[in-house]
Write a structure and sequence with these properties.
Number of helices: 11
Distance between the termini: 12 Å
Largest sheet: 7 strands, parallel
Length: 305
């Protein structure tokens, strides 16, 4: 069964396309069986992106947009059930220690069935937005890309400890705008130590890493996380799920064949997905459970015909 646990729409995200309902319709048309709606959380005023500033957005405006998203997601969830299992969530963004209270308030205000824990900023600077911003963040890290990688994974560790997200988003996003995005991390001792530490923590609290096909869509040779990280997490007993990180209907299920081929080459034989259920290992989401399915079963689905 194909599924995605990470998606966005142009209706509620300034750098995406298409309405949320069009995204849901496309997921249904592509034979998705579980599809999570995970619009970006609203952010503090100092963290608005340029397209949001140009559109006249404010922190309050982002909150209003997010509230509209949640209402529309609930409408679509009811409308398309049982044809498509829609899960309502959000992608939270850990930027600094004060993010904890901001995120906890959001999770308290809105009813979700899961959330993705992500890091898109280091030193308060976006690291996946453009090369210029990446270089600015690198300069703050002593103009060392290795140190920037270390700072990224340290910030991710803060996020993991504070939030224990059910799904960890694009684990190694930091490599996207780097000069050599396809070079591995193992040769960087301090970076690899931090990666291993973070993976162990995720396994211990029962989190799931997404195999995120967006990296392939953006021209990288491997998805997030890359091969060496995926193999390490698998050896530690970690669980993986599938995500397309779609930002419009054209991205739904994008590069999934390559993603499943990568999973097979890494040695992954089981995939995890979230669904409505009575048993749960996360008390924050009492009506959501996780299930596993064989990779071979996913590969044989009509989606890949």
């Amino acid at each position: 069964m194909p599924y995605s646990h990470h998606s966005h729409s142009g209706q509620f995200c300034a750098h995406a396309r298409d309405t949320l309902e069009a995204v849901v319709e496309a997921a249904l048309g592509k034979k998705m069986q579980v599809f999570a709606l995970t619009e970006h959380m609203p952010r503090e005023q100092q963290d608005l992106y340029s397209e949001e500033i140009n559109a006249g957005y404010s922190e309050d405006k982002l909150h209003d947009i997010f509230s509209d998203y949640h209402a529309e997601a609930r409408r679509l969830q009811a409308l398309y059930s049982p044809k498509l299992s829609i899960l309502i969530g959000t992608e939270v963004d850990w930027i600094r220690p004060s993010s904890k209270g901001f995120i906890e308030n959001l999770l308290s205000e809105f009813q979700f069935q899961l959330f993705i824990g992500s890091v898109h900023h280091v030193h308060g600077i976006p690291i996946d937005y453009d090369a210029k911003s990446f270089e600015e963040a690198q300069k703050v890290s002593g103009d060392s890309v290795e140190r920037l990688f270390e700072d990224y994974f340290d910030l991710q560790y803060e996020m993991l400890k504070a939030l224990t997200p059910p799904i960890v988003g694009h684990f190694d996003l930091i490599r996207l705008k780097s000069e050599h995005p396809n070079v591995g991390f193992k040769t960087l001792e301090g970076v690899w130590q931090r990666i291993h530490r973070n993976l162990v923590f995720v396994v211990n609290y029962g989190g799931v890493l997404e195999l995120n096909s967006a990296a392939l869509r953006k021209g990288l040779q491997e998805p997030y996380p890359n091969e060496e990280i995926s193999k390490e997490f698998l050896a530690l007993g970690g669980s993986f799920t599938l995500s397309d990180d779609s930002h419009g209907i054209d991205h739904i299920g994008s590069s999934y064949r390559e993603l499943l081929r990568f999973a097979q080459e890494v040695g992954i034989t089981q995939l995890t997905y979230f669904e409505k259920g009575t048993s749960t290992k996360d008390s924050r989401f009492p009506n959501i459970t996780t299930q596993t399915t064989a990779l071979s079963q996913v590969q044989s689905h009509p989606f890949f015909a």
